[in-house]
Amino acid sequence: MRDWYRRLECPTCKAVMGRACRTSNGHPADHHRARRDAAGPLPYEQWKQRGLWAEPKRFTMPAVLKEAEKARTDYNVDLALGDGVAVVRIFLAERLGIALKDEATLDRIDDAVRQLLQARGPARSADLVTVLASLIATLLSTTAGPDGDPEALFDSLISAQVNEARRLRAIEKNRSHG
């Protein structure tokens, strides 16, 4: 961009073509307004066509992060609990693949956990979270029974735990004030 403005002589400080503008003390400055006006608008479209102007990178949020944010808003909980809920929901959604010991399903879940942990923290603990979520999903499936819905049971368990934590926090708050 500087080269674009420097292609003309500056009408303010009389800096020659290709040289930086100078302040009244002789120190280098960016460029004077008169020089920018004389140079005209920057040719962004031409630069893009020639490949000189990089397109902005598009960031797509991984599905596990979207699920974690949804869990945080659904249950009004903190980041760590929202992440845990998201991982267990992914396991519950893939429970048929887990029951069949499908390696591709386990790999997809492992990748989701890795993406979540890379966005949140250390990547090496993904296996630990995977094992914990697997145990929780297995426990929920067992508790729900053969005709029960593990996802509904999970939702009710999370809601009950959050409500209990809020109730205990209110009791502690009343004790400290009263």
Structure description:
The protein is built from nine helices and no strands. With 178 residues, the chain is mainly α. It is elongated. The N and C termini lie far apart (66 Å).
Helix content: 55-70%
| Alpha-carbon Rg, integer | 29 Å
Which percent band covers the strand fraction?
under 5%
SSE pattern, N- to C-terminal: HHHHHHHHH
Question: What structural category do the secondary elements indicate?
Answer: mainly alpha
Q: Segments where pLDDT lies below 50 for 5+ residues?
A: none
Output the number of helix runs: 9
Overall pLDDT metric: 76
CA distance, first residue to last residue: 66 Å
Overall form: elongated
Major sheet, described briefly? none
- Total beta-strand segments: 0
Topology:
Elements (H helix, E strand, L loop, with lengths): L1 H4 L27 H7 L4 H6 L13 H13 L3 H15 L1 H5 L3 H18 L5 H19 L5 H28 L1
Summarize, please.
By secondary structure, the protein is an all-alpha fold.
